[in-house]
Amino acid sequence: MKQTLWPLTRFTSLVLTAVFMSTLSAQPRVIETATHRFVEAQDGVWLGTGSGSVYTMSNVMVLVGKNDTLVVDSHVTPTAARALLDALPALTDKPIRYLVNSHYHFDHAHGNQAFPVGVEIIGHEYTRQKLNGEAGDVLEENTFRSFSDPVALTVANLERLAAAETNLDRRSRLLERLKVQREYLAAIAEVRPTPPHITLTNKMTLFQSIDGGNREIQLLHFGRAHTGGDVVIFLPQEKVAFTGDMMLPGLPYMGDGHVDEWPDSLEGLKSLEFDYWLPGHGPIMESKEPIVKLQDFLRDLWLKTGRFYREGVSWGEAALQIDMTNHRANFPQIGEAGVDPRAVRRMYQLLDQRR
Ligand SMILES: [Zn+2]
User: Fold this and answer.
1) How many domains is the chain built from?
2) What is the 3-state secondary structure (H, E, C) of the chain?
3) Exposure winner among 39, 66, 200, 247, fewest CB in 10 A?
4) How far is the CA of 344 from the centre of ligand 1 (A)?
5) Is residue 184 part of a domain?
6) How far does residue 246's CA lie from ligand 1's centre (Å)?
7) 209 lies in some domain
8) How far is the CA of 74 from the centre of ligand 1 (A)?
């Protein structure tokens, strides 16, 4: 089954890449540093991804103006954020004025503390409450722990694999991954959640000086979705949106989500006029079609989970049984029946609250 599907999938992605490259500005500028790869979607609008030499985990957007720079998201640790700060001079000599957090999750906001004093951090009111401890300790929550606790095990596994590997090439690749994961493990210990100093609830607009005028930067909250405080960064003139994890090329993590409200919030995103969207993870995207596909998935998931809940099935058992394979054509990562138990546990919490 896999073998017959693979060439088709591969072909599709090649075609998509070709279409994409033809409509993105003729030859987008790409700047690579030791730790990052930056693609210029529009003049002064950069999407940054990690090169793998440092564990960054998420994308960043960098908006370069005439006098200053605005950065969206700060990566997963202070170490990763410092690598970003070291890489930025390859793009611009303008100082950073603002850092915007698309949401509070560790992989987007745990680099906040590494930004220089004087940089204003902007985020949703909810993001502030999560990062200043008002709404619980993010370092003790399931989301952070479920991703971070296994890192020590990953390091141990890589050590074992590298020691047993006799092929020199494969061994050096394992050692490189081991180095990155060891540094990541050490970096986690340094994290001190650092909240935004400036907050918004629904909308904030910034104007950044650029050659010949201003760049309008809209920070928009369309309602609860991936978290209680997702912010979309929208540039109406450049027609670009940075979606954070509210909208990804594949299925986003739902462990802190509001699956019931998420499709409506996506309606707000869909209403914007943009040519590209830059997700919190993954490549630059164009089509709005994936938004509809995610809305369909979320509505269906909420419905199916609700049925198990009302039948009195435990969340753990429901996670094994919920069958979303009817969405496999839209989300190839779906294998057999069963969904992320963290998503189901979260939906059960929301359903409990409604009682
Ligand atoms: Zn997230």
Assistant:
1) 2
2) CHHHHHHHHHHHHHHHHHHHHHHCCCCCCEEECCCEEEEEEECCEEEEEECCCCCCCCCEEEEECCCCEEEECCCCCHHHHHHHHHHHHHCCCCCEEEEECCCCCHHHHCCHHHCCCCCEEEEEHHHHHHHCCCCCCHHHCHHHHHHHCCHHHHHHHHHHHHHHCCCHHHHHHHHHHHHHHHHHHHHHCCCCCCCCCEEECCEEEEEEEECCEEEEEEEECCCCCCCCCCCEEEECCCCEEEEECCCCCCCCCCCCCCCCCHHHHHHHHHHCCCCEEEECCCCCECCCHHHHHHHHHHHHHHHHHHHHHHCCCCHHHHHHHCCCHHHCCCCCCCCCCCCCHHHHHHHHHHHHHHC
3) 66
4) 16
5) yes
6) 8
7) no
8) 12
| Distance of CA 103 from the midpoint of ligand 1 (Å) | 7
Q: Which of 131, 162, 188 is the last residue of a domain?
A: 188
Neighbours of ion ligand 1 (CB under 5 A): 105, 245
pLDDT by residue for the chain (355 residues), tens only, comes to: 333 222 223 333 333 343 444 455 567 899 999 999 999 999 999 999 999 889 999 999 999 999 999 999 999 999 999 999 999 999 999 999 999 999 999 999 999 999 999 999 999 999 999 999 999 899 999 999 999 999 999 999 999 999 999 999 999 999 999 999 999 999 999 999 999 999 999 999 999 999 999 999 999 999 999 999 999 999 999 999 999 999 999 999 999 999 999 999 999 999 999 999 999 999 999 999 999 999 999 999 999 999 999 999 999 999 999 999 999 999 999 999 999 999 999 999 999 999 8
Q: Which of 188, 221, 256 is the last residue of a domain?
A: 188
- Assigned domain for 320 exists: yes
For ligand 1, the distance from its centroid to the CA atom of residue 167, given in whole angstroms, is 37
Give residue 294 CA to ligand 1 midpoint distance, Å: 15
27 C-alpha to ligand 1 centroid (Å): 31
How many angstroms is it from 72 CA to the middle of ligand 1? Answer: 13
Domain span at residue 161?
Answer: 142-188
Q: Is residue 314 part of a domain?
A: yes
Say whether pTM exceeds 0.85: yes
Ligand 1 centroid from CA 205, angstroms: 23
